[in-house]
Amino acid sequence: MSIDTKPMKAEAKALMTMQLWKAYDQVFDFNVTAGILPNQMVVYDAIKLREKLLLEEIGEYRTAVVQKDAVEVVDALVDILYVALGVYVLHGLKPADDSFEFNIVGGSVIVNDISYGMQTANVMQRLVIMYSETDMKQDSLDALLSVLNEAIKHHGVSKFWEYFETIHQNNMSKFDTNEKDAIATQQKYAKEDFFTERFKVGGLYVVKREDGKVLKSVKYKPVTLTL
Q1: What's the CA gap between 213 and 211, in Å, rounded?
Q2: What pLDDT was estimated at residue 8?
């Protein structure tokens, strides 16, 4: 399966800051590899899955803030952006030009303001629900990125894009590089009573759960961010 993504990417690139464009481009490629074709009819299950994933990541951010765990705070912030950009791709949308930009100089990640983190998590949660339940997809997603942008600045995550790159490379390792490993991945999840599908995109093999979630390769190894 292949799709010409160049026209869509060119249009998106003209609208974004360089760092956000790079992140969008990476998530775009991840989603296309996972069989999510931009500008196609968006099915209900795909929307509900991404709503669920966003709420899960926001919940992880909330927990990390309460526990004052700097590594998990950063991991959650990166994951929220990664999933949110995937939602833009799903709908064939592009982030607003002014929705995500920051310039943080050095310093340690700040995790001492639990009240701020809880309020931020609650606002992001409401925006995800607004995305799910209304037709204001662009507005709710842009607002989510704006709140996320402020959270990154508040926590002083100066190396945010380095961490994003690490998470992206780790996400790409969820795909199998050969059919033998892909079959082994399917067999692994079959033992857990998951119905899966397997297909090839480019040089990579994808194994997905029935609800569309990409399942991790048997060769996948989780990464831990080093702050």
Answers
A1: 6
A2: 57
SS3 per residue for 60-96 = HHHHHHHCCCHHHHHHHHHHHHHHHHHHHHHHCCCCC
Report the residue count for the chain: 227
**Contact status, residue 106 vs residue 158, Cβ threshold 8 Å:** yes
Q: In the block, which residue shows the tokens 């030009």?
A: 97
DSSP 95-118: --TTSS-----S-PPP---HHHHH
Q: What is the pLDDT of residues 33-65, one digit of tens each?
A: 988 776 566 667 777 888 899 999 999 999 999
Mean pLDDT of 106-112: 88
200: its two tokens: 């090839």
Nearest to 164 by CA among 76, 103, 67, 70: 76
Distances (CA, A) of 26 to 39, 107, 128, 137, 205: 17, 27, 22, 21, 18
Reported as a single tens digit per residue, the pLDDT across 151-206 is 999 999 999 999 999 999 999 999 999 999 999 999 999 988 888 999 999 899 99
- Residue 201: strand pairing partners: 204
Tokens 């310039």 identify what position? 103
Q: Are 89 and 36 in contact (CB under 8 A)?
A: yes
Residue 92, phi-psi category: left (phi > 0), alpha (psi -120 to 50), beta (remainder): left
Tokens 């803030």, residue located: 65
